[in-house]
């Protein structure tokens, strides 16, 4: 068993004690016993200036119980203010100071948001009021530290490596979903993938139309809201943690190219259109994906704030996919080029579902390998149905990871022996089942962790200058941002990771394991942490902006249509008072899983025994430090 | 060709051709969707982004005028002092109707009365009232 219960019991008791202490400290006075001296109720007067796209001072520090009197003055255009958790929302018209007053009775960081659309970066115009003592932040940090100590010190590893079985596999134990007849029938249906792609294609068409011809106001434009709030939200919150690369089966980006090269939408045609070159062997890796991801994330603030840039990004991805389809066979774009595909592929390894062959012996006897080569007629395929070859060059018989499989269902259709299973399984199985750690994949993991920091700091931070730089408002600022971003992503984080790997090697005392191997192995262990950080980031971004969906559905292009009568639906940030708990819970889950996987990977690196245990400490502590850095960005 | 292919082709055609045409045709070839019946659409943009559009509006004396003013980048307002019109702030992405009946002929400047950029003062348009 991978997970033993005892340490989690200890952890639960400690978390319970901590929570009780915090509750008594914070709210004890309401029950009659004051642990904390009740606040004096001082008064803080602050003149708060607002301008595109920052508050100044961007961070205000008050003591708990203080009455905060804000006199807010606009330096340029009309802005607004929304105070998380206090329900205060007011407009700030230039020339007329706005007065806001409230008692800061909740501990911790309060985010303040601009409440009136004031330009492209409006959704990211944020300020902070820190109510000291920030017991929420310190309490959470202590909790993460306790979590680290418990997992490193008390959990047992489930991974058993021995000399005659150097790569023991964690077997998927769950049910085969294809065992249910109706599910199997859906996957066998030739129209399966086509009908998955159609809703995406409709959204994509509307996104392109509204991006190029609709209003330039992002918050009122279908492309912005449906790509960066709805699609991104669903992708990160549902697909990434649960559904492997299912999005890739539904993705409309390669549709045009694939349909043309197959000469069919649904059925299996026997000739293909295009040159059909093989993808160059030197590019059969993730380096181009990594490059694309770094570029897209570098331009993150530009892309997510201007509708036409989003439309242009979608269009250029579509065109690239189309051209690649004309020249190369199968979906080379999806496997070797698409940045979103790489992003999904890394986290797909965590997913609790997998598509695999049922019985290797059956595959060994199978002569035609229709799952890999496709099949044109039923007879030559020994009774299977006509199906396309695997679009992403995977051979189901030996496929042991989710990273490349796009769940398109062609192999299920092709196999004459019904030897393909779609199983449920424990989370993060593939991270341990990876036989050979790949350098490109390890870098992908590090890039996604590093860019999560940059993303958080620019989009949800309170630093106006950083947003100004990152938004390409002027070239010099953007060059500085680019240098900072690349230095952090490609030098800073990898160097730190290298250092940690070297320390782990020293701690283990093993000279025969190279630092590089440790570097690669531990990079895989960071995948759960970065996933949970992306989830926390996504919730922190979409909850405040979700209400735009209502008005955008009624007026998708900002042309004054009123399809459902809700054009004037007001902006309401949802559940922002809950964000602190969501963020800390995500961080705790991510850190916990990363430590757990890190410990298992230590066994994989160093074998069972004291060496692996000692080696997992430097890695574990650095992961905890990373989490506390994120905690500081979120709540510090 | 199989029936499924034809059906799929029709669905794709609907999305790729019919949808864009039905969205774009009215946008480019019929009246501005924002303005209702009898309304004149006036888009407010900052001076740096092109100012009022249209910058010149012609109306008839003694006839009721309905101007629908849409703020397209930041918050603006519409002020026509000679005829006593001031809408107050029109928040970004929303529109307001200014309704008035001009009682004298002539050409009158109108302005934005909510600071909208560093060159906010230059944001001017002309309303001509004809006899």
Descriptive notes:
Chain A is α+β, with helices and mostly antiparallel strands and 636 residues long. Chain A is built from 24 helices and 11 strands. Chain B contains 1 helix and 8 strands; from the N terminus they run αββββββββ. Chain A binds chain B through residues 74, 76-78, 91, 93-95, 116-119, 122, 190-191, 194, 198, 201-202, 205-206, 209, 213, 215-217, 219-220, 259, 264-267, 557-561, 568, and chain B through 2, 4-5, 8-9, 11-12, 15-16, 19-20, 23-24, 27, 32-35, 70, 72-75, 89, 91-95, 114-118.
List the topology elements:
The complex is a heterodimer of chains A (about 625) and B (about 130).
Chain A: H1 6-31, E1 43-51, E2 54-56, E3 59-63, E4 67-74, E5 79-83, E6 88-92, E7 98-103, E8 108-113, E9 126-132, H2 135-154, H3 181-188, H4 192-213, H5 222-242, H6 246-250, H7 255-262, H8 287-298, H9 300-303, H10 307-327, H11 332-337, H12 339-348, E10 353-357, H13 360-365, H14 370-373, H15 410-414, E11 420-424, H16 429-433, H17 439-460, H18 464-470, H19 475-508, H20 515-525, H21 527-545, H22 548-554, H23 579-606, H24 610-635
Parallel strand pairs in A: 1-4, 3-9
Antiparallel strand pairs in A: 1-2, 4-7, 5-6, 5-8, 8-9, 10-11
Helix pairs in contact in A: 1-2, 2-23, 2-24, 4-5, 4-10, 5-21, 5-22, 7-10, 8-12, 8-17, 17-19, 17-20, 17-21, 18-19, 19-20, 19-24, 20-23, 21-23, 23-24
Chain B: H1 3-29, E1 40-44, E2 56-60, E3 65-71, E4 79-80, E5 85-86, E6 95-100, E7 106-111, E8 124-130
Parallel strand pairs in B: 1-3, 2-8
Antiparallel strand pairs in B: 3-6, 4-5, 7-8
């Amino acid at each position: 068993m991978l997970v033993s219960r005892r340490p989690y019991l200890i952890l639960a008791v400690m978390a319970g004690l901590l929570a009780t202490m915090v509750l008594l400290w914070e709210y004890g006075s309401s029950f009659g016993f004051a642990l904390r001296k009740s606040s004096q109720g001082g008064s803080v007067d602050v003149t708060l200036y607002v301008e595109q796209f920052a508050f100044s001072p961007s961070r205000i520090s008050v003591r708990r119980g203080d009455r905060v009197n804000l006199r807010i003055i606009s330096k340029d255009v009309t802005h607004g203010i929304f105070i998380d958790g206090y329900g205060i929302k007011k407009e700030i018209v230039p020339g007329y100071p706005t007065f806001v007053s409230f008692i800061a009775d909740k501990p911790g960081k309060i985010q303040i948001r601009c409440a009136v659309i004031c330009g492209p970066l409006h959704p990211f115009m944020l300020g902070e009021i820190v109510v000291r003592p920030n017991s929420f932040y310190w309490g959470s940090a202590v909790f993460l530290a306790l979590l680290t100590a418990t997992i490193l010190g008390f959990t047992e590893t489930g991974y058993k490596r021995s000399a005659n079985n150097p790569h023991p596999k964690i077997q998927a134990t769950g049910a085969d979903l294809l065992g249910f007849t109706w599910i199997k029938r859906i996957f066998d249906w030739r129209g399966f993938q086509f009908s998955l792609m159609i809703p995406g294609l409709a959204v994509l068409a509307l996104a392109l139309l509204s991006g190029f011809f609709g209003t330039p106001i992002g918050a009122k434009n279908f492309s912005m809201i449906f790509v960066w709030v709805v699609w991104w939200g669903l992708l990160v919150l549902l697909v990434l943690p649960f559904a492997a690369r299912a999005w890739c089966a539904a993705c409309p980006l390669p549709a045009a190219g694939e349909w043309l090269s197959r000469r069919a939408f649904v059925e299996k045609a026997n000739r293909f259109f295009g040159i059909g070159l093989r993808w160059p062997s030197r590019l059969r890796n993730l380096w181009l994906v990594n490059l694309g991801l770094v570029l897209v994330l570098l331009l993150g603030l530009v892309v997510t704030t201007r509708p036409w840039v989003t439309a242009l990004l979608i269009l250029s991805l579509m065109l690239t996919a189309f051209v690649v389809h004309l020249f190369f066979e199968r979906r080379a774009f999806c496997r070797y080029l698409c940045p979103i595909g790489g992003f999904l592929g890394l986290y797909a390894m965590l997913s609790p579902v997998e598509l695999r062959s049922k019985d290797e012996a059956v595959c060994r006897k199978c002569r035609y390998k229709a799952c890999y080569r496709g099949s044109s007629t039923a007879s030559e395929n020994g009774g299977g149905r006509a199906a396309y070859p695997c679009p992403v060059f995977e051979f189901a018989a030996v496929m042991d990871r989710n990273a490349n499989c796009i769940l398109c269902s062609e192999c299920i259709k092709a196999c004459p022996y019904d030897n393909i299973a779609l199983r449920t399984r424990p989370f993060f199985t593939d991270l341990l089942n990876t036989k050979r750690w790949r350098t490109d994949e390890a870098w992908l993991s590090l890039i996604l962790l590093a860019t999560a920091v940059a993303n958080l700091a620019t989009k949800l931070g309170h630093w106006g200058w950083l947003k100004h730089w990152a938004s390409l408002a002027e070239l010099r600022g953007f060059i500085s941002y680019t240098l900072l971003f690349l230095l952090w992503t490609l030098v800073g984080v990898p160097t730190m990771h290298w250092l940690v790997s070297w320390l782990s090697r020293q701690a283990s005392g093993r000279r025969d394991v190279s630092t590089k191997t440790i570097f690669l192995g531990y990079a895989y262990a960071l995948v759960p942490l970065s996933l949970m950080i992306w989830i926390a980031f996504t919730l922190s971004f979409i909850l405040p902006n979700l209400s735009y969906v209502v008005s955008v559905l009624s007026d998708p292009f900002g042309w004054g249509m009123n399809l459902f009568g809700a054009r004037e639906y007001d902006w309401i940030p949802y559940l922002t008072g809950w964000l602190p708990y969501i963020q800390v819970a995500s961080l705790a889950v991510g850190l916990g899983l990363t430590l757990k996987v890190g410990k298992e990977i230590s066994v994989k690196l160093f074998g069972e025994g004291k060496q692996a245990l000692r080696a997992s400490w430097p890695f574990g502590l650095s992961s905890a430090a990373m989490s506390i850095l994120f905690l500081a960005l979120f709540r510090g | 060709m199989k029936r499924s292919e034809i059906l799929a082709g029709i669905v794709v055609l609907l999305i790729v051709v019919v949808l864009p045409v039905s969205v774009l045709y009215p946008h480019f070839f019929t009246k501005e969707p924002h303005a209702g019946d009898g309304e004149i659409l006036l888009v407010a943009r900052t001076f740096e982004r092109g100012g009022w559009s249209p910058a010149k509006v012609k109306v008839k004396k003694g006839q009721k005028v309905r101007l629908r003013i849409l703020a397209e980048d930041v918050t603006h307002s519409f002020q026509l002092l000679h005829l006593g019109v001031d809408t107050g702030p029109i928040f970004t992405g929303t529109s307001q109707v200014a309704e008035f009946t001009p009682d004298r002929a002539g050409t009158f400047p109108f302005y934005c009365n909510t600071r909208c950029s560093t060159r906010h003062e230059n944001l001017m348009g002309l309303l001509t009232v004809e006899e």
